[in-house]
Write a structure and sequence with these properties.
This protein has about 700 residues and is of the alpha+beta class. It folds into three domains: about 1-275, alpha-galactosidase from lactobacil brevis (Beta-galactosidase, Chain A, domain 5, Distorted Sandwich); about 290-585, TIM Barrel, CATH 3.20.20; about 590-705, Sandwich (Immunoglobulin-like). The chain contains twelve helices and 37 strands. The strands form seven sheets. Strands 5, 6, 7, 8, 10, 11, 13, 14, 18 and 19 form a ten-stranded antiparallel sheet that branches. Strand 21 (about 320-325), helix 5 and strand 22 form a beta-alpha-beta unit. The longest helix has 21 residues, at about 565-585. It is globular and about 80 Å long. The relative contact order is 0.09. The mean pLDDT is about 95. The structure holds (2R,3S,4R,5S)-2-(hydroxymethyl)piperidine-3,4,5-triol. (2R,3S,4R,5S)-2-(hydroxymethyl)piperidine-3,4,5-triol binds near residues 369, 436 and 497.
Amino acid sequence: MRLSAAGAELILDLAAGYPVVLHWGAPLGAVEVADLRAATAPAAPGADLDDPVDPGMLRETARGYTGRPALRGHRGPLAFSPLLVVEEVSIDPACVTVRMADAAAGLALSLTLTMTEHGVLLIDQAVTNAGDDTYSLDELSTWLPVPDRASETLDFSGRWLLERQPQRLPFAPGLRLREGREGRSGHDHTIVQCALTADATTERGEVWALGVLWSGGIRHLAERDVRGRGALGAGELLEPGEAELAPGEAYAAPTVAAFYSGEGLDGISAASHAWLRSRPGRPAQARPLTLNVWEAVYFDHDLATLTALADRAAAVGVERFVLDDGWFGSRRDDTSGLGDWVVSPDAWPSGLAPLVDHVHGLGMQFGLWFEGEMVSPDSDLYRAHPDWILQVPGRVPPQARFQQVLDLVNPDAYAHVLEQVSALIAELGIDYLKWDHNRFLTDPGHAGVPAPRRQTQAIYRLFDELKSRHPGLEVESCASGGGRVDLGMVFHADRFWTSDQNDPLERQQIQRWTSLVIPPEMLGSHIGPTTSHTTGRTHGVGLRAATALFGHAGLEWNLLEATEDERAAITRFAALYREQRDLLHAGRVVRVDHPDPAALVHGVVAADASRALFAYVQLTTSAGITPAAMRLPGLTPDARYRVRVRDVVTGEAIQKRGPGWMSGVDDRGVDQGALELSGAALAQLGLRPPILRPEQAMLVEAVRL
Ligand code: DGJ
């Protein structure tokens, strides 16, 4: 079976009676399967099986494999070592389904591989208990082998305010295991586990990656086994006892996406972004410039202030106004009120309608904050239903942010949230939900049994139901910033709050790596206050705007305190965002492999390479007094482009004279000159940046002539 598209290929061999991957990588062209088998079959070492076999995708111990198996479980003390044999295969050009069974163990397993037109391989597995007593499933992961030249691994760690930090390591013997057991994917969720060639960078080299379409417990694995072979694995992390399959019952693992790129990490982004841009339900509307009031007013809600803020927002070009935490129940700070989704008469004596109507009257959409999976012990809901929380019977989990997790597996608790939220959407005409999730799950039990899987399914169902009841409604997924950014939630939410970190310097790295597989238009990115609330660093509008521009842009700043100059700069930024968003939200993300660690260069190139927008970001001072050239790769080599600096983000430069190509710069730093160069010259020679002070940025536009 050969599945190929867009530069990726998987060749699956079923001749031995089980699924063996002969090849995962770039298309091989004309090859005979028998020759491939011969080329890949290893020698038989003295201290190993007499007849060496490939472990296949299921890696069963029963075939003589001693690495981690894909399927782990048992029937009491029995059925601990399955041996699944192919019974039936169905094939169409982009999809293969293989049905396997182990009659002795009483198990049936189906494996479906689908190659999308974008070159993303989607893998679905389901195991059915075909026996006549309970089968306890511990794990069903998806594994794919990687070639020996994949000698390094890359995954991402993180924490609150610093998500998606790359960790690149040798692909050494042993098992690398990344587990998320927070009941949400978590701030340290890697999104994908990669293996790569030693020469791989953002722009070149080979990369293989697996990611799980799931927002609960997740496991990513990379194993180099005792024979020296490397493989990547991914799947759901089940709690002990969570998947007790009754006779006839099946467990369907979350889909796993497999990516291959021969064009470095940016090739993984290109495939993933194209795939996710074709997802069902993707909003058709251009991503509206958003103002979220959290860092502007926090819990200090007041109609007059927020109305004035809405006026300022509309005047600078904001298109969506989002009222954050603090409008409901007894919620005057973060110690109470979650679960009571009714407008607070204390904070909003005339209700929310005056603000909503005012915002709508200004031509903006209105968004409202919820955290519907949570309950504060100090709330009417908890007082009435203290048992509606996820817990182990007889004890209450430790509190986090003064809250507990509402048990959405309980139909009454689920209906309470759904109906209260839905009623408000209908009554007020809410266009957008910002949905938070500020604590991880501990003791995630429903009626005494583990329920994180069902809790995740419940939130997917709830979002889907709200959207179907209220056509056009959009949902932002937030979990103290980027605690639930994953390949599962992309199919239920429309935007992620990438991080609570609004300091643009930190944010540059967070966005660079979160967008490895998540398209930038799904990543909320705001101009925060002048002095960052998280780091205490002060930045001008320039770097903040240049950073926010490359996502789903917005503001999170009290514009009532902004100076006239700052408001003028934001108005220009808003116009630039409106002008460029069709490019930024549809083009190819390019992370330039820049030689100077003191600067970052990245951009977006239109699919037809007719235009591009690049950012040069001076993080700190460069070793050389004149910084390294900024290359602009990805344009058509033999086409000619006009390049110029764009407004808003130029910083002060410590130089007597700018670089040659910037001659004609006006007093706002905007290049009036018209340098024309070929795509090849821009990719190879690039442009000399001005000598910017640290923490300043410059935007450069290239337009094909
Ligand atoms: C955490 C979020 O990440 C913030 O943006 C904000 O919504 C607060 N919660 C509100 O409590």
